[in-house]
Amino acid sequence: MKTPLTSKMKYHFPTSRQAVNIPIFASLRLCEKVLRRTLTGLLILNLSAISVLAGNGEGDPRAMGMARANTAVAENTEAYLWNPANLGMASLRKNNLTINILSAGFRLNNNVLTIPDYNKYNGKVLSEKDQKDILDLFGSDNSLDFNGDFTARAASIQYLNYALDFSIEGNGFARMPKEVVEIMFNGYELGSSQLSPNGNGGGNLFFSLGASAGFSLKEKLSVPFKDLSAGLSLKYYHGFTQSTIKDLYAFVEQSDSIISRGRLNILESHGGNGFAADAGLAVQFNDRWSAGLCVQNALSSIAWSSRNKKRLAEYTVRTDDFIDLQDDLVHSDTTIDGQSYSRKLPMILRAGVGFKANRTTLLAMDVEHFLTEEHGDAVPRIAAGAEFQTSSTVYVRTGVSVGGDNRGFNLAAGGGFIFGKYQLDLATNNLESIVKLRRFSFALGCKVVIR
After folding, report:
1. In DSSP terms, which residues pair with 145 in a beta bridge?
2. How far apart are CA 234 and CA 254, in angstroms?
3. Residues 6+ apart with CB under 8 A from 219
4. Which of 70, 124, 391, 421 has its CA 20 to 30 A from that of 321?
5. Among 376, 444, 441, 445, which Cα is nearest to 148's?
6. C-beta of residue 238 within 8 angstroms of C-beta of residue 204
7. SS3 of 396, please?
């Protein structure tokens, strides 16, 4: 016999299957009430994991508008983000001095729910058809995944073939196994342990300072190209916070009474320092064709050593009929000092080509691959972008990408506007969200160009 779950503060487990009155993922609100403080999330995170990871941010609106196809064509202060070798290319170093006053961007994404889906089912008494339709939204995915990242940059400077960059970046990731939704809808087998997904992940939030330089090799090497350059970026990181979630599990079982158990193990730190390096090559074959190759975060290591702690939490719920949290919930929470530890940033390989079709049209294509896998980004990302100069003061950009950390197909668009020495850029890289509303990103930047 199966027993479905409901979402009331006193949980009653009916003995027959019936429609479930549960706001979609109201569990998050419920857990906040039920397991305040450290156990927030465990009665439904029975269940899931939340983590934060440093990753590739969205702080370059020009690149975002071209679907992030910029390895071969990134210019000035943005060369630091994509390929430091571009600083040594005369065709890309168009200005003697460029100051990125401020740029910032973010990205939000999930793989299952659209906003119309959420509005349709939230707060509704779900019929069996509704429950089936929600489960069908998962498709071949085994979990509901949320992720988001952001980057903010200020006072970054490019002078001749050198650049200095200041930024803050972070990334968030949350996963709820499909099993959680299935057990809420279909219940669990009596006398069995039905649900036991393991949590995983980690979390980083960083300030970074980077110095880059690119040098032309044309005069030193006999190559049949118009130009060839190599570049290097050295980056210092100060970590504000980091956490690693492991040994997160929970299950519901039935013996003489209803029993639910859970455990959460978190390793966290509130201070760390480290370094990383990027290395790249850039080549201009002729007046139209160019290419770039870059490895980012090579030999990176962040040592977390400030206020390190281990946090262990467990709970058990036992009842014969109703769950009364005051009487039936038994939990423990232990925090102990932890040892210093190190974490690596994801190492990324980027390769791209650029084609100058005419004086006003630039085309680009990129391939991005995580050499060290981060939260499932094992599939390469392929992007193609274009930039059109419609007048002396206006640029229009667009692009498409598939795979990688953006998950699936994405359509990008953006624009650039020149006001004397100032340039304003804005973009989005998830126009598919206009239809499906599962992803959204936006970036905005302002720079001053001194020729």
Report:
1. 175
2. 57
3. none
4. 124
5. 441
6. no
7. strand
What separation in angstroms does the CA of 356 have from each of 29, 289, 399?
53, 7, 16
16 CB-near residues (< 8 Å, 6+ apart): none
Q: Which two tokens stand for residue 6?
A: 């409901």
CATH of 2-450, one of 2.40.160, 2.40.50, 1.10.10, 3.30.1340: 2.40.160
What does residue 42 show for φ and ψ, rounded to 5 degrees? Answer: -80, -30
Residues contacting 8, CB < 8 A, separation 6+: none
**What counts of helices (H) and strands (E) characterise the chain?**
8, 25
Dihedral of the alpha carbons of 120, 121, 126, 129, in degrees to the nearest 10: 60
Q: Which residues lie closer than 8 Å to 451 by C-beta, 6 or more apart? A: 94, 95, 96
361-380, pLDDT tens digit by residue?
999 999 999 887 654 457 88
In 3D, which of 374, 348, 354 has the Cα closest to residue 366? 354
Structure tokens at 306: 């400030």
- Distance in angstroms (rounded) separating the CA atoms of residues 397 and 419: 18
- pLDDT confidence of residue 148: 77
**Residue 261: both structure tokens together:** 């158990």
Domain ranges of the chain: 2-450
